Amino acid sequence: MWKNNELLLFAWEKKGEEMIFAAFLFIMAAVYFLYDLPDGPLVYTSVLTTALFAAAWIVGFRRWKKKCRQLSGILEEKYREIDSLPKWDTQAEQFYQELYRRTMREKAEAEEKIRKEKAEADLYYTRWSHQIKTPLSVMRLLVQEPSADQEAMRQELVKTEQYIEMALNYQKLGKEGKDLRFDHFLAESLVKQAAVRTASFFIQKKLAFVMGDGLDCDILTDEKWFVFILEQIFTNAVKYTKKGSVTVYAKEPGVVVVEDTGIGILLEDLPRIFEWGYTGYNGRLDKRSTGIGLSLVKRTCDLLGHRISVESQVGKGTKVVIDTRKEAVCAE
Which ranges of the sequence are coiled-coil (predicted)? Predict the structure, then answer.
């Protein structure tokens, strides 16, 4: 619409300069008239200055039209690049362009963040849907038997509940801490809660669960999320431990350690075990591994402000250290 009225729009924008020029011509004519000067120089001067003003007006109009069409193209998203902005003429235009560039950069960053989150969510739910099919398939087979194995059914039900809870927790983690409720808790109490929730896994594989020393210490954390962390670590420990035990103890107040006698983790896999979707050598052996559990653990620890580290030796076991001390986080 504006293209049909370009001349009128430009004339309206320049009305101040046009009025000043008109006033200048009027004053000059008035001076010539009052002093009874010859008309020739007046006419010559008026024509010359009008011609110069008209030339400047036309040049300004052409530059203005080009700039407007560039901006119109950006507005219509023909040009998405920030560098496509026309050259600024005034300080105010420079500020507006810098504001536009900043806004576009923030928009691009937000879009990239949303794209990554969506891709991550798609990956998670794709793997999750395949993961949860296993216990459901086993339960379907068990109910078809004349005398269903109740203990086996219960174990598969626990797995299904755990997978569902993981999906719910994954969604809650995206709320950036709105679900957190910090308080002081006895480490022993939190460990027992996680142990009860994963007890069937230990029973199924006939592994010993040992509560070691130092768990009578107090830790500042969120009860629900800390139990979730322990539950995931216990589940992983059971998954990769064929015989022996899983021991939990406090190395010192505020530092909880989970140590197993499992197959261990390859040295080259250790730096990447918390990466989203990374399964490593052990995960490839276990076809049902998604590489998501430990990533959620790390994300939860970061959300709580806890520091987590892993030590492991192949064939000897793995040690997971959760440091809830405030000074440990500040020292990073």
Answer: 93-127
